[in-house]
Write a structure and sequence with these properties.
The protein is an alpha/beta fold. The chain contains 6 helices and 7 strands. It has a single domain, classed as Formyl transferase, N-terminal domain (Rossmann fold, 3-Layer(aba) Sandwich), CATH 3.40.50.170. The structure holds glycinamide ribonucleotide.
Length: 191
């Protein structure tokens, strides 16, 4: 594969890291024309940190409380991203609202995945919120990131019909859909 056509991407995560894993595997196998060159995490004890080590991806792990303001830690994130030549930032379970520093530095180049058909059920516990509401069509959304919670122009969505009440079963279905949607979207965006 020609190296010039490969893009440098960063994945931001806060927890388990299954989307990070899927994106990194797709990059390593050549399924997407990109290299995951940086993983950014705001939770030092998160599983995604050891996963990055195991997968050979450089990481920047920080605690927001070690910085006076959001701008301060975001300035450091931007510095690291620039140092690595990052072109696109993929949020994958990064549980923080992105601030001005990052948005200005990477205008139109930050995307996020969310486990609902946005604009419905933004925020944490989206799958549980939707089930409590009694919806019959769930889904996943990939969108450009703006300064609001899970807000920004929608890029792609996948609907999932489910009428049961088993949250584990539904979560597994949504996660499986997320993985496919992220890879398909990255293939399109990076073309
Ligand atoms: C994913 O389901 C993602 O859509 C969600 O966090 C999960 C992370 O799982 N993101 C949000 O809720 C964003 N508001 P993972 O760490 O196993 O990839």
């Amino acid at each position: 594969m020609a190296t010039q056509s490969r893009h440098k991407i960063a994945v931001f995560a806060s927890g388990y890291g299954s989307n990070f894993e899927v994106i990194t595997r797709a990059a390593q196998s050549g399924e997407i024309p990109a290299d995951v060159v940086l993983m950014v995490c705001d939770k030092p004890s998160a599983r995604v940190c050891s996963l990055a080590d195991a997968m050979g991806v450089e990481k920047f792990v920080f605690s927001a409380k070690d910085y006076p303001t959001k701008s301060d830690y975001e300035r450091e994130i931007v510095r690291r991203c620039r140092e690595c030549g990052i072109e696109l930032i993929c949020l994958a379970g990064y549980m923080r609202i992105v601030g001005e520093e990052l948005l200005n530095a990477y205008k139109g180049r930050i995307i996020n995945i969310h486990p609902s058909l946005l604009p419905a059920f933004a925020g944490a516990r989206a799958i549980e919120q939707a089930m409590e509401y009694g919806v019959k069509v769930y889904g996943a959304t990939i969108h450009y990131v703006d300064e609001t919670l899970d807000g920004g122009k929608i890029i792609a969505q996948q609907a999932i019909e489910y009428e049961g009440d088993n949250i584990e079963e539904l979560t597994a279905l949504i996660h499986a859909a997320e993985y496919k949607l992220y890879i398909k979207t990255l293939q399109k965006l990076l073309k």
